[in-house]
UniProtKB/TrEMBL annotation:
GO BP annotations listed: leucyl-tRNA aminoacylation
Organism (species): Chrysophaeum taylorii
Organism lineage string: Eukaryota, Sar, Stramenopiles, Ochrophyta, Pelagophyceae
Protein's UniProt name: leucine--tRNA ligase
Keyword Membrane on entry: no
Entry keyword Chaperone: no
Keywords: Aminoacyl-tRNA synthetase, ATP-binding, Ligase, Nucleotide-binding, Protein biosynthesis
GO molecular function, one term: ATP binding
Residue ranges annotated for the Aminoacyl-tRNA synthetase class Ia domain, each copy included: 1-270
Family under the similarity heading: Belongs to the class-I aminoacyl-tRNA synthetase family.
Domain of life: Eukaryota
Length: 270
């Protein structure tokens, strides 16, 4: 990483019924969980969304009247940047930007735990709606504190979903029904072909090959991430969507621009 700011794409995951109790005061409004991603071209493979159970979130009103659920830290950053949603080619300042102060429109704190099991619509995903699940390795001081899950290409995402699928007691701990995980199979998004290996679901492939069995397996996960991220960007070729057949390094910008143009994403720099 360089010294310049990181450009994240915030994907707008719309909250749908059954409406979470903690968001009751904004029921009926356009409410989005907004995960930060560096890999917008992988959004075809979304199977769920992750929050930190013990993390603190808020619901922050945007200039267009919609509401973003994210960390307060990210809401403040967004307020200072103004909306970079370029659907009309213009600069739309966030209503939240008032003397550097942002205030959640939902009274009290929203714990990640309160969002678990909520259903959201994920743009480009093959699944109609996906669910909010726990990820204990989320950092609240990075991005928005919300992560969208692409188990085909992100080892952290794969192992956390795998654990929830395999361990009923883990689901019980968080009050999650089997429906929130059972039908969400890994979706191939891009092919990585090197001299040694080829896979259409490289994170799943490497997690299995390295016998990663827990999200606490930090060393092995690091290895899986190093391998898949490096090759994903430089060698990956899209398998699905409008840019099937295109190199990942080119598709990344194209999908990012499409998501911004359709109003399904905004940019966030930090
Ligand atoms: B990426 P960087 Cl398919 N805590 O999106 C932990 N991880 C976070 C986070 C947070 N607060 N905010 C974002 N992230 C994840 C997709 C993806 C990502 C794929 C492959 C690689 C990849 C699907 N998850 O990231 O440390 C998000 O996961 C490779 C690094 O800020 C985000 O992009 O540079 C990435 O980490 C941002 O990581």
């Amino acid at each position: 990483e360089g010294v310049g700011p990181q450009e994240y794409v915030l994907i707008k995951l719309r909250v749908v019924e059954p409406w979470p109790e903690v968001l009751e005061s904004v029921r009926g409004r356009e409410v989005y969980l907004v995960p930060a991603t560096l890999r917008p071209e992988t959004m075809y493979g979304q199977t769920n969304c992750y929050v930190l159970p013990e993390g603190e979130y808020g619901a922050f009103e945007q200039a267009d009247g919609s509401v973003f659920v994210c960390s307060k830290r990210a809401a403040l950053g967004l307020a200072h940047q103004g909306s970079t949603n370029q659907h009309d080619g213009g600069f739309v300042p966030y209503a939240a930007a008032s003397m550097g102060v942002v205030k959640s429109v939902v009274p009290g704190t929203i714990k990640g735990r309160d969002l678990l099991g909520a259903a959201v619509r994920a743009p480009l995903s093959i699944y109609d709606a996906v669910y909010v699940l726990p990820l204990t390795t989320i950092s609240m001081s990075k991005g928005t504190g919300v992560v969208t899950s692409v188990p085909s290409d992100a080892p952290d995402d794969w192992i956390a979903l795998h654990e929830l699928k395999e361990q009923p007691e883990l689901r019980d701990k968080y009050g999650l029904s089997e429906d929130t995980v059972a039908k969400f199979d890994v979706v191939p998004v891009l092919r990585i072909e090197t001299e040694e290996w080829v896979s259409d679901v490289s994170a799943a492939y490497w997690c299995e090959k390295l016998e990663i069995t827990s999200s606490k397996d930090a060393d092995k996960l690091k290895k899986a991430k190093d391998i898949t991220y490096l090759h994903g960007f430089s060698k990956g070729v899209m398998l699905v969507g409008k840019y099937a057949g295109t190199k990942v390094s080119e598709a990344k910008v194209l999908v990012r621009n499409d998501l911004l143009a359709s109003g399904d994403a905004v940019l966030y720099l930090e």
